[in-house]
Amino acid sequence: MRLVLCDDNRMLCEALASILEAHGHPILAITTCVAGGIAAVAEHRPDACLLDLCLPDGSGLDAARAMRHYHPDTKVLVLSCLTDPAVLWEAKKIGVTGFLRKDQKPEKILAALDVIGAGGTVFDPNLSRQPRWRTDAQPRENPLRALTPREMEVMGRIVAGQSTAQMAREMGVATSTLRSYIKNILTKLGAHTRLQAAAIASRAPRPLSGAICRDAEAPPMSRMQTRAAAYCY
Known about the structure:
- The protein is an alpha/beta fold and 233 residues long.
- It has two domains: 3-129, 3-Layer(aba) Sandwich (Rossmann fold); 143-231, Winged helix-like DNA-binding domain superfamily/Winged helix DNA-binding domain (Arc Repressor Mutant, subunit A), CATH 1.10.10.10.
- Helix content is 47%, strand content 12%.
- It has helices at residues 10-22, 34-44, 60-70, 85-94, 106-117, 149-159, 164-171, 175-189, 194-202, 223-231, and strands at 3-6, 27-31, 48-51, 54-55, 58-59, 75-80, 98-101, 122-123.
């Protein structure tokens, strides 16, 4: 399927784009805001748009609504950290083709694309089981609390898109030691890849202090660099 990706975290977006392209899905554009996503869909007329809901200039639901209204041939697959059933219900009313959690394995996203490409829909069954009384305003446990200060530093560098070699060099440790840090981080966060770990860190109640390099401040990386940073350890 020909795709447009829209997510406020460009590093994660480019990592996912690299994997999708390797599996035969051309990426026509990568955008990081509501206005950019709508414009990219209007320009490229993709088969589908993979859309986050938390964007810097508004809600992804507004983008989905505009895409479905003006470009009904473009399917919308939501990838979001929001798990409120009310959000899922609103997305269904708008007419999105699928709704998955943002920290899904790439294999599940690829499988979802196969389903919607064949005319089906994909909605994460776990989302509809979330209790209706839970809202984002309520305190949530911070998964990063399990990390040691050194692991927190490594986590911040992962989110910033640094490679294993770069992290080891700047931190003054052996590559084998750095890999051990990363393995511990993935185990503690219940993640299988760096991409999943970065997604978990990005939606933690308290973001990494001083370690996360936001997309607007970070220098752009090539897709191959991002893919290596996100998946190799």
